[in-house]
Design a protein that fits this description.
Chain lengths: 165, 165
């Protein structure tokens, strides 16, 4: 099924930006980036991607579905790990080529496949002297589940997993 | 200057995920997506992109620089509109192919080129009955500046502007 079949095709700039018709713009690979934040704490949990099917299923079920670029398949968040994401609110941006999901997490409340709550667990230094090799600083080191005991399939073993399934 | 010259090349999965060396992964177009949130309110303001030069300048100056995909050039946020973004904190995600900036906004505190605070000013309906054409709902309609009076260059006229310059 093509994008056009699931969602209306984007019209002009004015319609996309100031209109009320949801007409998402998928990129050349048929994907749209999705910012995922915690509805409870507001923190950014992950940046994921949806194709039109993942987006349609998310809207229909209220459960976050994504497209895994590394594994080339659709997945429901938490289908294996139990770390599901219930969508409290979805927003689209001005030109409708990005989405923002506010979610409530299930399971261990870990969105990252490394077992952490957020994928964004390290800071990058800013300011003077920030040249050459930059040292990241861990701000979240606690893991809420043990990836090795949760992911027993081939993709985890091959290291192609990103967000917690 | 190549990516490798500005930043170390990514090594293996373990180094990327659990290491302390900042080795960002740029996509096939040399870009990395950047989630931008307000350091004050936590809300998601925009999703933007950086090439290696924009990233290096942001780190060096503490002022957000992005790569405009529509205009094909680097820009410092607010260079024209005054709506600059001072970086309070930058984070990278598990596999270092996405960034999160927490920023303090200058000027009218509008990050969107439409004059709004956030680019994410419309919600998408979730749940049963969400089939066919979906109606967006405006949650932020107030404009903090008048785009027509701020952007007087050709790009604005051509409608290729996205975030507020």
């Amino acid at each position: 099924m093509s994008n056009a079949a699931r969602f209306p095709a984007p019209k002009n700039k004015s319609e996309s930006e100031e209109g009320t018709v949801f007409a998402p713009r998928f990129d050349a690979e048929g994907l749209v980036p999705v910012v995922v934040t915690s509805a409870r704490t507001g923190e950014v949990l992950m940046l994921a991607y949806m194709n039109d099917e993942a987006l349609a299923r998310t809207i229909e079920t209220g459960e976050a579905h994504y497209w895994s670029r590394s594994r080339g398949r659709l997945w429901r968040k938490g289908e294996e790990s139990g770390n599901s994401q219930r969508v409290v609110e979805m927003r689209t941006d001005c030109d409708q080529d990005a989405l923002w999901l506010m979610v409530e997490m299930g399971g261990a409340e870990a969105s990252c496949h490394t077992g952490r709550r957020s994928c964004f667990y390290r800071t990058v230094p800013i300011g003077e002297g920030a040249t050459g090799s930059l040292a990241l600083h861990f701000v979240e080191s606690e893991t809420l589940f043990a990836p090795d005991s949760v992911y027993r399939h081939a993709h985890a073993a091959k290291g192609t997993l990103k967000s917690s399934e």
